[in-house]
User: Fold this.
Amino acid sequence: MTAGCIAGAVEATAVWPMEFIKTQLQLQSKTKGAKLPYSGMVSGITYTIRTTGFFSLYRGLAPTLIGSVPKAGIRFGLNAVIKEKLRGKDGKLTPGKNFVAGLAAGVSEALIIVAPVETVKTKCIELNKSFLGGLNHIVKTEGIGGVYQGAVATALKQGSNMGLRFMWFNEYKNYVTEDGEKQLTPLMGLLGGMSAGCFSTLGNNPFDVVKTRMQGTKAVHYRNTLDCFNQILRKEGIGAFYAGIVPRLSRVVPGQGIIFMSFETIQESLKANFSIFAS
Assistant:
């Protein structure tokens, strides 16, 4: 869990501008008459710097950074615990069991950390407010329960995300290390994390779009998560579910490379230097 906490903080800070643009793109409805100030990552970064300054690209980082440390700790720690429970008599895990372990870890982190943090982050970005400004807006307009707006959509997104990601990475790790016979190098961890990030993003971006809409200021237009999904599909088409896919890939691919590489490296270092972490 300690390794996961450290790795989470490193990853969140390194790739935040791409997350900022991805969130903005997903918040912009593509219904008829809607005016989009930009349509992609490069134009989004350029527009943001020109209109609100370079450092506004880091708006919304504070709540995410606060949540990234315990979030990553829960994710990696709980995933490890569940995997041990699911191992067969031969000590191995099937891809399906790896998916279930990742799914459970993802849903847990979503309900404990991600839902409130992502809600505040989305409001900060959409309303151009600071962390405290976004939090105050939620409390004043929706009550303290408003921080859990879109919790169901968040759990669906985070659960499927982690299930796909851990399933891919563990299968990759088994392949490149020949089932643990070889050591996983930092470069192997980087490439494995990047490929896992790409796989999970392509697989669950629709859930991410719905989550973002449910946490935005226009969430009142949707009765629930299913209604949000149906309205997007009916009014904007299936392509809308892949809004922000390029900036999300630009953030997730290097970000997951960093976090998996950091986790594997830090975990091995802790085990080698501190007996309390050896198992």
